[in-house]
Amino acid sequence: MGEYQTVTLKMEPLDQSLSIDAHKLNHTAKVINKFVPQGSILERLMNFAASVPDFRRCDKGNIRHRLNDIIILMILRRTCGHVGRSDIIAFGKYNLNKFRKMGMLKNGIPSVATFCRVENGSDDPAMADSMQAFAENFHNELFKACRDREIVCVDGKAERGTVHENGRSPDIVSAYSFNTGITIATEACKEKSNEIKAVPILLDKIDISGKIVTADAMSMQKDIVEKIRKKGGDFLIELKANQPSLRYGIEDRLVEHTPVYSYTEGPELAHGRIETRTYRVYDGLDIIADKKKWGGNMTIIEYESSTVKKSTGVHTSEKRLYVSSMPTDTPQPGTIVRNHWSIESMHWGLDHNLQQDNIKRKSSRAARNLDTIQRIVYSVFSIWKGLRKKQSDKNKGMAELIRHISMSFTRIMRFLSQK
């Protein structure tokens, strides 16, 4: 009877046999420096991506792609106006050789599952803080060219592509600089909480000394007003029925007082409507009963709008009340009222241009990470406009700007290589 010889074959997983260690240097820094100008938008985007903590076990398992490469790929593709994961993968495959020349994506393009793990696994507060550091650098540079007092708009936005078990969508409160068009910082509302608890945390993250904070009626709270005053800022906040004693008390007393001054803007034709706006400014010294609760005297601004729809001739009117810590002789407070609406325009841009509400995410963490990436993309276009010298480029709307730039990888890289 013959003898049999046993031969043992050592098999290695296919995904490991061809992979390159994602954390090996491979002279990547030298390669990137060759293609990315120092101080450019792209270099700072790469610094942002590199600052996001890696949630994966780097000392174990098979990590084929560096986290910062994945994040940069997500940003660049969304800069082109495409949002789906399959679109991001197609974009990466088409431009893979160009990415590799930059020292990126040495092991090819990540899969859909990898993108899912990155969005669900990355530390969302840490990524948001990294975005804040990225925004602050450009914000300080762009604001140097502004002569006006800075207006910081605070408002919340529901992430409607994600729904909790209780039927609510997660809310993210943001601080948006009207003067620069950049989101300065964000704070997520807890699942069973709301903006009232998140706004003070958000204000602690930013410097508002000497600035004007604008917000909607949700932020008309004693703690929020006190925090703005203590941090050396002023506020202008809409007043609604969520503060019934203050709201109705002011309405009853306004008829007995004469405004310090009033002025009218318009009529103006915009969006198919002819609008006339009247502002009346009152000293709140004798109008607000509980002044101690709100930290002292306040100015009251009554806004009255009269609108005629051009196509039908239908006439509508509305009144709104605002309270402010600014003195009554502040010129043109209506301008500050209207500037607050810029944050609503930014939210609309996230939904219309970047399709935020149409993108489904299962977890709040993934929703916030997506929001952070999209706010960076939106801020990048604002940064580009702010750095441009041509007035025609500065006057471009966001949708027009995206169409102008997002046509090819070469154009995007030229766009991001600006200092």
Which descriptors apply to this entry?
alpha+beta; 9 strands; 18% strand
What does this structure look like?
This protein has 419 residues and is of the alpha+beta class. The chain has 17 helices and nine strands. Strands 3-2-1-4-5-9-8-7-6 form a nine-stranded mixed sheet, with helices on both faces. A hairpin with a 2-residue loop joins strand 6 and strand 7. Helix 3 runs antiparallel to helix 8 and helix 9 runs parallel beside helix 10. The longest helix has 24 residues.
The gist of it:
The chain is 42% helix and 18% strand. With 419 residues, it is α+β, with helices and mostly antiparallel strands.
* Percentage of residues in helical conformation: 40-55%
What overall form do the CA principal axes indicate? elongated
Number of helical segments with 4 or more residues: 17
Class of secondary structure makeup: alpha+beta
Radius of gyration: 26 Å
Low-confidence stretches: 1-20, 25-31
Major β-sheet profile: 9 strands, mixed
Average pLDDT confidence is: 83
Distance between the termini: 81 Å
Write down the secondary-structure element order: HHHHHHHHEEEHEHEHEEEEHHHHHH
Strand adjacency order, main sheet: 3-2-1-4-5-9-8-7-6
Total number of strands: 9
